[in-house]
Write a structure and sequence with these properties.
This protein is of the alpha/beta class. Helix content is 46%, strand content 12%. The chain has helices at residues 3-12, 16-19, 21-30, 54-65, 77-87, 105-118, 145-160, 162-166, 200-221, 240-245, 247-253, 260-272, 296-301, 304-318; strands at 45-49, 69-74, 95-99, 124-127, 171-176, 227-232, 282-285, 288-289. Helix 1 (3-12) runs antiparallel to helix 3 (21-30), helix 6 (105-118) packs parallel to helix 7 and helix 7 packs parallel to helix 9 (200-221). The N and C termini lie far apart (42 Å).
Amino acid sequence: MRWQDLVDRAIELPVAPSYTRLGSAVRRRIDHWTAPTDYDLHGRTVVVTGATSGLGRSLACTLAERHADVVLVGRDPTRTETVRAELDGIGEGTVTAALADMGDLDAVRSLADVLRRDHDRIDVLVHNAGALTADRRVSPQGIELTVASQVLGPFLLTALLLDRLRASAVSRVITVSSGGMYSQPLRIGSLEMGPDDYDGTTAYARAKRAQVTLNELWGAAVDPAEVVFHAMHPGWADTPGVRESLPTFRKIVGPALRTPEEGADTAFWLATDDAAAGSTGRFWHDRRVRPIHLLPKTRRSDTPARRADLWRWCVERTGIEDPRGT
């Protein structure tokens, strides 16, 4: 084992050092990370959901600086246009805005129509939208909103844009997940939590677990010579979502939290580096592949039958034909 791997393992095992600024700082040095400024993204079209704040805005900004044509997807017209205006002109590519609440499946279909109309190909699709809410909410289709926005919405958008992604082989689909998914097993029957047992943190972690599993299933379903799929977790970053949803956690961790730029780094790397196009269906943190299970209970839950049930459930709830047949 290389000394770099030993150092990585030493900060990964206790979790906290790995997820804070320390983890990214150490790995940037020992692995000699290529700086974002060394990438040239002229001519690449990148769609980023949840692009108006936090990790999504940071990622979109870095992509625009490196001359990509960036499509910002947000649900609030004013905020989305404000960010578009702020990023417009910082690189040599275009920055455009598209509106959709990723939890509203009808809005996702409309978004796909707009993207298909405006783009013959899409090089990168980044699923970043989603929030942790303390109270239970439902989508316009009556689906619990955490699941609708972070599982079904991304699944539907990916399926509807597959032809545009295949037109830019090798394209990439990147899902911004969370280390919180390590705490939850794969549960299809209770993925959509009801009003009697709803807990925002648990709902969020279960949705993130489903995201990572679907990432692997997409990777197995689509030819990696056409589209590759990767999920990642950003560690603990100081974003508006953390400030609003986890104020006590933020107060405790404080200065050790990563900046949004540090949290979004691996997503940017997956979207741009040639090395990321050489594999598919993997889960990443700080530019390294990570296991999707740390606990025996979650590993035992991850059976082929439950995986098949999850895929089938997504197909049924979104009302589309099985994209594995396209």
